[in-house]
Amino acid sequence: MKILLIINIGIKMKYILVLLFLLATGIQGVFSQSSGNIDRSLETEGDSIRMNIQEAVLTALERNPNLSILRLDPAIMKSFVNEQRSIFDPNFTVSATRSENKMERFLGSRPDPFELTSKRNQYNAGISETLPTGTNLSIDASLFGSISSIYLPQYSGNIELTITQSLLRGFGTGPNLANLRKARIDLEISNSELKGMAERLVADTEMAYWELYLTAEESMKYGIVTTIEN
Strand order of the sheet with strand 114-130? Predict the structure, then answer.
């Protein structure tokens, strides 16, 4: 069912306010559905507007400024949850260094100097992680290598494992997960607030729409010229 209303000056102030409420939500113009980005335009004829109740609800949800701002809260709260969760993510590090030296030395009775070349390489890798229990785990591995023009190549390496457990401050999952749990609760609250506001906006829009419909039924009494299309 579609309703075409042409309001005359003699309409009651109550229904003018209801119509202004719908216009404030952005009935006129083009609006997009968030799921498919489909643009639709409301049909207009002069000073009148053609729309059904579904279009009124979708327009109010799309154009309401308070709801648009409130939609940002869940994304912000989600970023806080990810930030607190990242504290317990493992960290991986890797590094490599290389050096080369050249020098000249006299060996024995040789009149010409002998060029001595040495190369050194070092490779490091490590991984560390903080557990919710207050435990810090880290494992590091290193490899050293030396190559010389007069000596045999030399290599050495080591692996180190470190475990650190907090005994007083930061011990247990309670204090370590407190911020993460708070961030998750804030996320649930923001989602509930967004859902509640959307439901109230839908109810208010439907109520305003049907009040205009009842106004159309009493058009002759209040001086409103009304056209109803099925």
Answer: 91-105, 114-130, 135-148, 154-165
